[in-house]
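sorry to bug you again but im stuck and you know this stuff better than me. below you get a single protein, a line of residues and a line of whole numbers that encode the local backbone shape. mainly i need to know what kind of three dimensional shape the backbone takes. anything you notice is useful, everything is just below:

***
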Amino acid sequence: MSLPIKHITRLLDKAFDKKEENKAWDMWLVKYEYMNKDNFVPFSEFLKQTRQPQVSVTTNETVEETFNRFKSKIKKR
């Protein structure tokens, strides 16, 4: 039985998402022990928070400037 590549990719994406959701569930269960009615966070909200990027960088540096900065660091090694 052979599956088209797009089906395999879709299955892998679902598997990855499910694995990440299970990790979030485990983390939420640990936090749940310390929650009370004042700081309770439903799992659905916690899951949304874990899926959002945590780092927001604002810079005026162009992609080329960033590339050149990292390139110079690599050359120093």
Notes: The mean pLDDT is 88. The helical segments are 5-32, 43-51, 63-76.
